[in-house]
Amino acid sequence: MLFLNGIAADNRLAAKLLTRIEGRTRLNFDMPGLGGAPDRLYPYSIADAAVSVADAMTQLGHAQFDLAGFSWGGAVAQQLALDHPGRIGRMVLMATSPVMPAPGLGAGAMFDADVLTSAMRLTGGSMLGAGAQLLAASGWSAVSRLPEIKGIPTLVLGASGDMMVPLAYPQWLARLIPGARLEVVGGAHLFAFRQAERMGPIITAFLDEA
After folding, report:
1. What are the boundaries of each domain within the chain?
2. Phi and psi torsions of 67, nearest 5°
3. Fold entry, domain 2-208
4. Strand 99-100 and strand 88-94: pairing?
5. pLDDT of residue 119
6. Residue from 151, 133, 141, 48 nearest 91 by CA
7. Residue 181 has what pLDDT?
8. Which of 9, 26, 46, 165 could bridge to 18 as Cys pair (CB 3.0-4.6 Å)?
9. Per-residue buried b or exposed e for 140-149, using 16+ beta carbons within 10 Å of the residue's own CB
10. Which uninterrupted H or E stretch holds 100?
11. How far apart are the C-alpha atoms of 107 and 79, rounded to whole Å?
12. CA dihedral (35, 170, 199, 88) positive or negative
């Protein structure tokens, strides 16, 4: 399973969650300028990121894989599923949207419990790396194409208290993807990590379904 992280977050943020997704190899790439990855000195798009991730998985010998994406990484996951549908087994989309930017996305950061608490800080890298992610998402939309995602079982997870990506966006996303399943949990934007003990088994059970 490949996990794709959010803006300004390196692979440490998801470590606790990934240890609780059992029975499979778990991969998590740092985006340019984050964690151990060098900065990319020119802009890139969500589509470019999807190409880079697909190429990396090919180089690692994974022709087909399950996919999970959180927030910004959820946009890259959607793009991967659209551009390389034959390579994706099952997909989990967490706290994400089918379009970026959009009204309300990120606007409630100062009110989001996970952003406000000092107990859960985003780990990341350079300002250039985070800025490049923001620029990549500028003007990105999968709304018109998401109905093309057929044959990829998809679980959409959203939190009732998420002020960064309000629940309306995961709900919309689930309606756009044929057959997608929506599950709403309590908590704020980083629910998948703060509730790793609960979310890990939910994701594992979904990925294990025949």
Report:
1. 2-208
2. -140, 135
3. Rossmann fold (3.40.50)
4. unpaired
5. 40
6. 151
7. 98
8. 26
9. bbbeeebeeb
10. strand 99-100
11. 24
12. negative
